[in-house]
Structure formats: structure tokens, C-alpha cells
Design goal:
single chain; 6-stranded mixed sheet; 5-stranded mixed sheet; Fumarylacetoacetase_C_sf; metal ion binding; acetylpyruvate hydrolase activity; hydrolase
Length: about 230
């Protein structure tokens, strides 16, 4: 097949202990999934989680640099568990959801917080606040066959060595199997889809030069750095 332009390269993630790469099809994100984070954001804990997406070319790999983005003066981290799918479909029962999991990673849902506040106040879409360049740092995938199906374990974030976020994924309002099931009610999930499952409390702003260390029990850690402002 001939293309008028050079097509973009396939987005992918590294796999711990393997030479092959995990091809990424879509990045689904879940908001409002820890009660403590909902409270710090002045939201209603009874609301269902918010579903949104990020572009696959927003991925930043372990050891990479995130340019401080344009169009914000309040750039926030949100550290969370990432789930990678090996299969999918519509209307996946909760009882079968785990069978579709390929593995897990740690990730950051980077956010233009000032513009998110404006969008929320006006009832506008979130894309400008969530789906910008370099907004999806994601570490290497640890295969479920190596770490098991994760239902507990701590998500942690350090900024310049200081712990900012630390919570167990068992505290998620919507558990991983429920998230997969609910997503499949609205979208046909496919191999290569990844899901960012929501962040715990402790979100905050970063500036150029900050080093972010992200970890999840049983999963390969990730470190990224905030770079100079994007040109």
C-alpha cells in the first residue's frame, strides 16, 4: 500500500524480560477512582468514574524527559497503575475480565490543572487538559504471567526523592476487573489497549528539573524528568 505521507511509527511499550515490544492501540484513562483524590479535587465520591483518552504518541518511556508543556502554568502529576490488554470485546463480564490482561505498568497522567479547572467549571471536554504532547509517561510492562493478577499493592510517587503519593490499589472505587467490564460496555476493547486506572490523593505541581520516580509493588519502576518548556 502506498501512502501520500510517511505513516507514523507504531506506538509501543517495553516488556520486562523480553525483546519484543507491546504495541499500543488506544490509551483509556479513568478519573475519580480513589475517594481521597476525589475529596482533594472537591468532587462527589458517589459519581461514576470519568472515562477519557490520550493519544498513543503522547507516550514517554522510562528514563525519558517531559518538556514542560505550553498552555499551562500549573502542570500536575497523577501516578497510577496501568493495565495492558491481550484480548478484548464488548460487554466483558467482571468474572472474565482478568483473562484479558497481558500485564501491568506504572504510569503518569500528566495534567494541565489550570485548564482542567476551567473545563470543569464550564462543562467543557477535557482533551486540552489531558491529551497533549508527552502527557502519558508509561514504564515497562510486567507480564501477568510473571507477577500474577494484581488486586493489591502500593502505587508510589516521589518527586526529587520526597514521597508525594502512596496508596494501595485495593482502595480503588472501581477495581481493575470492573473497569475493564465497564469500558467494554461503551467500547470494543482490543489487544494492545492500555488502561490508566486512576490516581490516589497527593497530586501536585512540578517544574523544570524535577525528577519523578514512580513505582508499583511487583511492577517495573519508572523515572522521568521534567524538561525545559516546550518550544
Amino acid at each position: 500500500m502506498a501512502f501520500a505521507l510517511t505513516p507514523p511509527s507504531q506506538a509501543h511499550l517495553d516488556i520486562t524480560g523480553a525483546d519484543e515490544k507491546f504495541p499500543v492501540r488506544r490509551i483509556y484513562c479513568i478519573g475519580k477512582n480513589y475517594v481521597a483524590h476525589i475529596i482533594e479535587m472537591n468532587a462527589d465520591e458517589r459519581d461514576p468514574p470519568v472515562i477519557f483518552m490520550k493519544p498513543t504518541d503522547a507516550i514517554v518511556k522510562n528514563g525519558g524527559e517531559i518538556p514542560y508543556p505550553v498552555f499551562t502554568t500549573n502542570f500536575h502529576y497523577e501516578c497510577e497503575l496501568v493495565v495492558a490488554l491481550k484480548s478484548g470485546g464488548y460487554n466483558i463480564p467482571v468474572s472474565e475480565a482478568a483473562s484479558h490482561i497481558y500485564g501491568y505498568a506504572i504510569g503518569l497522567d500528566m495534567t494541565r490543572r489550570d485548564h482542567q479547572a476551567q473545563a470543569l467549571a464550564k462543562g467543557l471536554p477535557w482533551e486540552v487538559t489531558k491529551g497533549f504532547d508527552h502527557s502519558a509517561p508509561i514504564g515497562p510492562i510486567t507480564r501477568a504471567s510473571d507477577c500474577g493478577i494484581l488486586t493489591s499493592g502500593h502505587v508510589r510517587l516521589k518527586v526529587n526523592g520526597e514521597v508525594k503519593q502512596d496508596a494501595d490499589i485495593s482502595l480503588m472505587i472501581w477495581k481493575v476487573d470492573e473497569i475493564i467490564s465497564k469500558l467494554s460496555e461503551q467500547h470494543r476493547l482490543m489487544p494492545g489497549d492500555i488502561i490508566m486506572t486512576g490516581t490516589p490523593a497527593g497530586v501536585g505541581a512540578v517544574v523544570t528539573g524535577d525528577v519523578l520516580d514512580c513505582s508499583m509493588d511487583g511492577v517495573e519502576p519508572m523515572q522521568v524528568r521534567i524538561g525545559p518548556k516546550a518550544a
